[in-house]
């Protein structure tokens, strides 16, 4: 699974203000505003930041809206052993420096659903945060069964998550045995001899409920 996000900010000298108010050379932006990810998978959330070239970044952190104050996810016991920061080298010009930083969270839990924000602290005491942050929703997969209007067999199975995601690869199982087909839709003759189930590739432990001859189909 991959990253997405929004825009926002905060100014130096210990003053917290929205980035959209136009403070020069201070910014934290995110490529997407919302991310939907599967439980048990890994998600990446990336930000781009900018600060005046006369300032040096002394601390970076990602935090959520779960606490009354910013708590570094690396120090949050709810995320112990599951988070990683990957920040690239800064590029500085005459007036400002820019950089990127990616937050990775593995083994996602539904309790990880929250708003995630990035903050930089500079050598002069300035603190700048990207607000609003990235809204992460963690969900399980589901499988729907669609019957052809003309007959009860074969049936078309559709494997999908509650995330409206594209580009996912799906694994199908017949009686628990992995099949070669990897599309979202698959045609099966459902009878008393076997059942079918599916999972998103890389998350086979989150396999859907099995569909068999006696399954209730809507």
Task: Summarize the topology.
Layout: E1 7-8, E2 27-29, E3 34-38, E4 43-52, E5 57-64, E6 83-87, E7 91-92, E8 96-105, E9 114-122, E10 127-129, E11 134-139, E12 141-147, E13 155-161, E14 170-174, E15 177-178, E16 185-188, E17 196-200
Parallel strand pairs: 3-11
Antiparallel strand pairs: 1-2, 2-4, 4-8, 5-9, 6-8, 7-8, 9-10, 9-11, 12-13, 13-16, 14-15, 14-17
Give an account of the 3D structure:
It is a single chain. The protein has 218 residues and is mostly beta strands. The chain has two domains: 132 residues, Immunoglobulin-like (Sandwich); 66 residues. Strands 1, 2, 4, 6, 7 and 8 form a six-stranded antiparallel sheet that branches. Strands 3, 5, 9, 10 and 11 form a five-stranded mixed sheet that branches. Strands 12-13-16 form a three-stranded antiparallel sheet, with no helix packed on it. Strand 7 and strand 8 form a beta hairpin. The N terminus is likely disordered.
| Number of helices, where a helix is a run of at least 4 consecutive DSSP H or I residues | 0
Radius of gyration, in angstroms, nearest whole number:
23 Å
Provide the helix percentage: under 10%
Give the biggest beta sheet.
Answer: 6 strands, antiparallel
CATH C-level name of the largest domain: Mainly Beta
On the 0 to 100 scale, the average pLDDT is 79
Fold-level CATH name of the largest domain? Immunoglobulin-like
Shape: elongated
Uncertain parts: 1-23
Q: What distance separates the N and C termini?
A: 30 Å
**CATH architecture type of the largest domain:** Sandwich
For the record, the count of structural domains works out to 2
The ordered H/E elements are: EEEEEEEEEEEEEEEEE
**Percent range for β-strand residues:** 35-45%
What is the CATH H-level superfamily of the largest domain?
Immunoglobulins
Number of strands: 17
Task: Please state the structural category.
Answer: mainly beta
Signal peptide: 1-22
Protein name: Immunoglobulin domain-containing protein
Keywords: Signal
Domain Immunoglobulin: 32-139
